[in-house]
Amino acid sequence: MKKIIAAVLIGAVALTSVFAAKKKNTVVKLGVVGSIYEDLWAPAQKLLKKQGIDLKFVQFSDYVTPNNALSNGEIDLNAFQHRIFLQNEIDNHKYDVKLIGNTFIIPLNLYSVKVKSVSELKSGSIVAIPNDVTNGGRAIKVLAAAGLITLKSDAGFNPTVNDIAENKSGIVIKELAANTIPAALKDVDAAIVNGNYALDFGIKTESAIFKDTSVSEKAYWNLIAARGKDLQDSAKVEIFKKVVKAFQTAETEKVFNKDFGGYFIKEGWDIDEF
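Structure for D-methionine transport system substrate-binding protein, as requested:
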């Protein structure tokens, strides 16, 4: 009887040791802008959970804060911006932030609740565009592609209103913070709306009066970014690689196509950015 009790006690101790030795999941804080990103990342979050990684979303309401938060170590990764935006942030703020993976490209379309076609915009019509350098420059190019303006021959990759050679339509361009444009749509004649904000406000891509023609440009691929310092840590790099691979799956693409048709187009998944 004593031997049986001893065996049971040994077994109990061994089982307790197993549970005590079980590692806690690694928490990775991912900075995003807009609730839609949580839906886009849901398949990856589920897959990572099985790999011992808890992906926690940290929501930001603007495009200014996430890179600062990443550079300062408040979050581990962010996924909200395209390449040209990140480069501009690094140039202006010297952030220690690096590209580690590609996600998708988001069309930057022209919408209106007052007119049904570009031809209805006339002299004095107010058209809102994002006021940040990179999305603003892209918006200017969309307006040019729509035939509302023409650009100077020496206009750079990120043109501004000062690079407009001719405003033959006579529209008035109003620069606003990107996150305020959907709410302002009723107060202007038309607006260039960032895709994630358009989705958050229920603006459907098929309602666009002109669709973005710059979707083939690599500079506008959205990305996953990490702090440069963390990329010197091999353990963190392995975790970050798992996060990137977890996003770049057929399950994520199903979400793109089934739930958000037309807004998200996968790009650069075959490129290893580490």
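The CA atoms of residues 64 and 73 lie 15 Å apart.
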